[in-house]
Structures are given as C-alpha cells and as structure tokens.
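Troubleshooting entry. Yesterday's outputs looked truncated, so today I'm pasting the complete records for two proteins to confirm everything comes through intact. If either block looks cut off, that's the bug. Protein one:
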Amino acid sequence: MDFNLSEQHLMLQDSIRNFAAKEVWPIAEEIDAEDKWPEGMWQKLGNLGIMGITVDEEYGGAGADLMSAVLVLEELSKSSPSIALSWGAHANLCANNLNHNASHEQKKKYLPPLCEGRHIGALGLTEPNAGSDAVNVQTVAVRKGDHYVVNGTKMFITNGPVADTIILYTKTAKEKGAKGITAFILDTKFPGFSVSKKLRKYGHRGSPTAELVLEDCRIPVENVMVGENRGIEVMMSGLDVERAFYAGEALGIAEACFELSVKYARERVQFGRPIGAFQLIQAKIADMYTYIEAGRMLCYRAAVFADKAKGGGKGTEVHKLSSASILFNAEMAARIADQAVQIHGGYGYMLEYPVQRFLRDAKLLEIGAGTSEIRRLIIAREILSM
C-alpha cells in the first residue's frame, strides 16, 4: 500500500504545523500548568476549517478523508496533546460520528454549528462502572410519548464541561444486553442535563473533562440515531474509527519527544563532548526513530483502511488493524517519552522542560478507547475467531 501523502495532505500538514508552532506551542506549558483551555482557541481552530474536517461539505464540513484528520491530530499533538485530544473528541468522536450515522434532518440541524466552531461536541459513553466493559452502560432511557426520559451518569467525558452536543449511549432494553443500547443526540440545554464536576487529571491538563449527570433528562424521539436498540452499531463502528484516529496523537507525541531529544543530545555537553557522541545515547535515538517509523506505517494504514471500511462490522479486518495501531503507537509513545526524559537527565524531570509533560500525556493513550489489555483481546479474538 502506498503511503505517500497527496499534495492536499502535505499542504494541510504544513498549514497545521505552522499554526501549531505559532498559536499552540508558545502557550502549551501555560495550558498544562494552569489546567485551563486557552481563550479563543476553539474559534481559531474553526477559522482553520478543521472543526468538521471529515464532515460532508453539504453540512458545512471540509469533506476530507480520515487520513487528513489523523495528520491534523498528529501535528497538534506535537505541540499540545491537550488541544489535540479535545479537538479530536469534537471533530471525530462527535462530528464525524454524526456525519456517518445521523439522519439527513439531524445532520442539517446539528452539524453546521459544530463545523463552524460555534458549538462544541463530545461523546458520552464511559460510566463509573462501564469503562472497558463499554456495552454494560447503565444509563437508562424510557420512552414517554414523544420524548425519552433519561437517567444516569457519564464519567471521564472529554469536553464535557463545555459541550453543546453529545452523542449519548443509553440502555432502552436492559434485558437485551448489548442489543438494547440506543444512541441519542443530546443537546446539553435539554432539561435534566448537568455537569456534576470538572475532573482534575494527571495529563492532558487544559483539555476539559467532566462527570455528567442526567436526571429525568428529556430527549425528543427525533434525536435517536439509527434507531432504538441499534446503538451497538454506532458504538462499534465509532470505536474502530476512534482507535485508528487517536493513534495519530500517540505518533505526534513520540515525534515531539524524538525531536526534543535529538536537539538536546546535540547541545548538552558532558565529559567534554555532546552527549549524542556517546553510543548509549545514540542507541536510544536510533530506537526512537525505528519505532516511530514503524508506528507511522501502521497508523496511516489503519486510517486508510478504516476510512474505506466506514467503521466496518463485526469480524472485519478493521477491528484488528485499528486496535493494533493504537496498541502499538500508544505503548511506543509512552516508551519514547520515558526515554526522552532519561536522555534529558535531571532537566527532564523539571517542569520547565516539555518532555515530562509529553510523558504524562502519553499515558492516557494506553487507557482511553479501550485499554492496551482490551486491544490485545480484540486482536487475538479476531485472529482466532473466538
């Protein structure tokens, strides 16, 4: 498979790289230290035309492919994984999901403001007792006339404190298990919705995360996505794309750590020589490069495949490939970030040096969208057909 980027991909990559260098990198440390989303950033991202990057042009999007979205995520992650994470939750987990699964009328209503950056999107899947066991969601929706009454709690929701539109997973037929899940489009202005609390995190500080509460929340029947008790279709296809997509963030973190390590190895002098002259440092740099290039091939291949498969279905290659991509790249990013701190020595442990920030940020990618353990189970199950 040819992974040479098209001229359009290269232009997009260059544009986001320049934007990140000018608008994101200079404030990345401040974002982390203050755990605060920078004022005006959503509008700046909107002005770039990337808030609905994979959304059809008919609904205000750019109509680009998943590879384009991965490239944007990769470049943003080199400066601030926090900005990248929140943008990804909006553009991929919410807007892209709506574009693939919502009805024409739902798209006309909800996608234009999301694509313009006037509204912010999120995904409401994880719950206090339903993390890796995602299909065990306990949030319940009961139909009452032309509305559903929803009760439950969602946990660890990226963009939760600021979201206007949330794709929400509930149980509408608990006795049916996974086949009793329904996906809704939740407008956070609906009565009964509230943000319980903003959560403080070890990494990805500045990206707003919250616990959400639905207490007799009324959602109109027309906000059901695909159909009642068909939410598992939306969930599984969304997770495949999410895994292929977020491998790009891991790749960006690894590349940033590599570049910082190479620069430091050239400049830091010990025993009368730059530390890059020592073979043990050279070995670390060589390993970093090798892992990154391997991860890039897997990441880009998964993005191309997931885009063509449109999420695929049970038993398809995309389950295995997207899981392998995020598994390898997430663990690779954590390993490289750790080695970057080691190369920087005592300075790498100081908050003034960004490598420690990337190390903290990298850890989430081994947990979110299915832990590394879950990803291995998916891959093995697909290989063994069990």
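Protein two, checking that the full record survives here as well:
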Amino acid sequence: MKIIDYMAVAEEAMAQIKKGAFLTVKAGEALNTMAIGWATIGFVWNKPIMMAAVRKSRHTFDIIQKARDFTVSVPLTDMHDAIMCCGTKSGRDYEKFKECNLEIKEAQKVVSPIINTPGLHFECKIVFKAAIDPAHLAEEYEKLYPRKDYHTLYFGEIQECYEIE
C-alpha cells in the first residue's frame, strides 16, 4: 500500500470512475457495495472531499443513510464483469461479494471496507448529504431521471487515499 496525494491522482481516478468503480458502505452489520460512474473529487470547506451520488431506490441508500463513512475503490485492472454485476444486481436480493468474486479488506481509517483489488482507494467520512431537489435541477438534466429516482449527494472528507498494486 502506497499513501498518495488525492489531487495527484484525481484525473486518473475520475477517468476510471466514468468506466466504473465501487462504492462500499457499512453500518452496523449491514454491508454493501455498488457500482458508481459519477463522482467528484475536490476541495470544499478547506478539506479534501469526494462526492458520490446514490439513488434512493438503491439498497446501498438504506445503508449509507445510517453510515458515518464510505469507501470508493477505483480498480486499475479489468473488473468490468464485477462492476456490471454490482451495477445491475441489488444487495437486497444477491450476495454481491460472493457472486462477483469480490474480496473486502479492512480500511485504514474508516469502518467501511475497501474492495481488495489493485487500484486507487479513497476512505471518506461523511460530512454532508443532500437530496437533489428537482425544482432546482436544470431542465436538460431531467432526462437522466425518467423514473424520478433522484440521487442523494454524499460529501465525504477524504481521510486516506492510497494505491494497492
């Protein structure tokens, strides 16, 4: 494991997140991972922040609402099949870790584990969350929500960022 500056890898991480990454969250005994393709990395409130979006319709939403943190694992190897599995199957109905052959590893500074894979890993403490209010959403973005299942945005202060080779 190699600790890295989150901004030094932000561009690489975002390029991969567009192809798919894993958001993993744990609250009590509840644990789930899901595929994400949208996120931001930046500097807000004088802190390093990653923002991830989770739709209320997702099983992960039920868990992250009770969680204090989340992790984002950005694979640097081909994990297309596992990402597709985690993006199309619900943790309500499937044991995604088992079905997608995903191994978890304890995080360094947060409760939620990481996906044990070569890649970039972000450990984030939730500092703010806000549900998208469609009244304030630009009209041209409405097409992204044909079922009106708007995201809640989770802002996580990056506690640790590292690469596993």
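Both blocks look complete. Sanity check on protein two: Strands lie at 2-3, 21-27, 30-36, 39-44, 47-55, 69-75, 104-105, 114-115, 119-131, 151-164.
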